[in-house]
UniProtKB/TrEMBL annotation:
<feature type="region of interest" description="Disordered">
    <location>
        <begin position="1"/>
        <end position="22"/>
    </location>
</feature>
<dbReference type="InterPro" id="IPR022687">
    <property type="entry name" value="HTH_DTXR"/>
</dbReference>
<keyword id="KW-0805">Transcription regulation</keyword>
<keyword id="KW-0238">DNA-binding</keyword>
<dbReference type="GO" id="GO:0046983">
    <property type="term" value="F:protein dimerization activity"/>
</dbReference>
<dbReference type="GO" id="GO:0003677">
    <property type="term" value="F:DNA binding"/>
</dbReference>
<dbReference type="InterPro" id="IPR001367">
    <property type="entry name" value="Fe_dep_repressor"/>
</dbReference>
<dbReference type="Pfam" id="PF01325">
    <property type="entry name" value="Fe_dep_repress"/>
</dbReference>
<dbReference type="GO" id="GO:0045892">
    <property type="term" value="P:negative regulation of DNA-templated transcription"/>
</dbReference>
<feature type="domain" description="HTH dtxR-type">
    <location>
        <begin position="23"/>
        <end position="88"/>
    </location>
</feature>
<comment type="similarity">
    <text>Belongs to the DtxR/MntR family.</text>
</comment>
<dbReference type="InterPro" id="IPR036390">
    <property type="entry name" value="WH_DNA-bd_sf"/>
</dbReference>
<dbReference type="GO" id="GO:0003700">
    <property type="term" value="F:DNA-binding transcription factor activity"/>
</dbReference>
<dbReference type="InterPro" id="IPR022689">
    <property type="entry name" value="Iron_dep_repressor"/>
</dbReference>
<dbReference type="Pfam" id="PF02742">
    <property type="entry name" value="Fe_dep_repr_C"/>
</dbReference>
<dbReference type="GO" id="GO:0046914">
    <property type="term" value="F:transition metal ion binding"/>
</dbReference>
<dbReference type="InterPro" id="IPR036388">
    <property type="entry name" value="WH-like_DNA-bd_sf"/>
</dbReference>
Length: 135
């Protein structure tokens, strides 16, 4: 994303922050899980994140084995969304918190819409919201 920034001489210039990167739905689901844990002040290990991801609707097609979760965490590190501490706990970066907050907001709005407009019970709304939030 390009933005305008004044240099030391007061002259405007364009700074390229990299391409606007759309996250995959799988990455968004991982980020949503990590964000919800972050809201509860929890910093999971890969194994703990694996257990949390098993609660995501199976229709999302997420890999929930420790190796597949570890692979996604490495990918998210390269994307600047998470950091792995020496204690092996996964922490969201500032970019990860911002992205997670956006996804959580879309998810909660989708749940509210499905419950309010379609009269669906909350669990079914949660499953449907997962589909809607990525659109």
């Amino acid at each position: 994303m390009a933005r305008t920034k004044k240099n030391g001489n007061g002259v405007d210039g364009t700074v390229d922050d990299g391409p606007d990167e759309r996250l995959s739905s799988g990455t968004e689901n991982y980020l949503l899980c990590l964000y919800k844990l972050w809201e509860d002040s929890a910093y999971p290990t890969t194994t703990q994140l694996t257990e949390t991801l098993k609660q995501v609707p199976v229709t999302e097609g997420l890999g929930t084995s420790v190796p597949s979760v570890a692979g996604m965490v490495r990918r998210m590190q390269r994307q600047g969304l998470v950091e792995m501490g020496k204690d092996k706990r996964i922490r969201l970066t500032e970019r990860g918190v911002e992205g997670g907050a956006d996804i959580a907001r879309r998810h909660r709005l989708a749940e509210w819409l499905v419950v309010s407009l379609l009269g669906m019970d909350l669990y079914k709304a949660h499953v449907e919201a997962h589909r809607l939030e990525h659109g």
